[in-house]
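User: Design a sequence. Structure:
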């Protein structure tokens, strides 16, 4: 119980601290290691504070590899867990505009190079996708949550948004689908306290060659990807049955 309360009390000041540290980094003069340092440190601190156990099957992910990561989304805890697991892959998250409007934290997100998407404005959203491709060309591996929001129905995945498929195909990088379970049980949408007893499970699926689909085949890509991920997700759920 103490760790559950400890996490809730300390996460906000820890996030503020690392946000301030991030804002002091000059992205123009810093090395990639210096630029990535505070995001990774925040992720490691949040996972440590949560007290969760992580069981990860990293599949064919190469340390330092340049990919597009596409996975399901259940909890705010997903972010620090992925920072910890993919710490050598220079990840940045594709996130909704409202997160970038949070005082201090939002500025730190933008400063760190995370990718803002305005879902309420189609034209702005398409521009964001094109800007994201430029960011990715600089060596960044984007992490995309195609469900578009945190899933509260934990027995299966939500429907996927087509924008995630467009971004993945435009980047032209190998695509790594992944599934995670139990972060929604540990800290679901709207939860204030955490329950760190469930084991957080992560599984990387086989890498997809982006040339397997054209941009015009994005609907087929979406359907194939969801079917593959949904099957793997249910298999991962079975480990806790």
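Assistant: Done.
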């Amino acid at each position: 119980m103490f760790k559950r309360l400890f996490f809730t009390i300390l996460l906000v000041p820890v996030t503020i601290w690392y946000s301030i540290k991030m804002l002091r980094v000059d992205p123009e003069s810093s090395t990639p290691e210096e630029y990535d340092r505070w995001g990774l440190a925040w992720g490691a601190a949040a996972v440590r504070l949560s007290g969760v156990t992580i069981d990860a099957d990293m599949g064919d992910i190469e340390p330092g590899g340049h990919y597009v990561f596409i996975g399901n989304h259940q909890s705010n805890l997903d972010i620090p867990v992925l920072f910890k697991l993919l710490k050598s892959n220079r990840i940045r998250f594709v996130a909704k505009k409202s997160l970038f409007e949070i005082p201090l934290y939002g500025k730190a997100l933008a400063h760190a190079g995370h990718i803002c998407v305005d879902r309420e404005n189609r034209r702005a959203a398409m521009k964001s996708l094109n800007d994201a491709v430029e960011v990715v060309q600089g060596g960044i591996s984007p992490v995309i949550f195609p469900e578009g929001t945190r899933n509260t129905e934990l027995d299966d995945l939500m429907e996927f948004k087509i924008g995630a498929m467009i971004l993945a195909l435009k980047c032209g990088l190998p695509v790594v689908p992944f599934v995670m379970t139990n972060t929604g049980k540990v800290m679901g949408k709207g939860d204030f306290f955490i329950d760190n007893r469930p084991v957080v499970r992560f599984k990387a699926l086989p890498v997809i060659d982006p040339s397997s689909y054209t941009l015009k085949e994005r609907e087929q890509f979406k359907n194939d990807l969801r079917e593959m991920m949904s099957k793997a997700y249910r298999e991962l759920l079975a480990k806790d049955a």
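Strands lie at 54-57, 68-71, 91-96, 115-117, 141-144, 175-181, 200-204. The longest helix spans residues 2-23.
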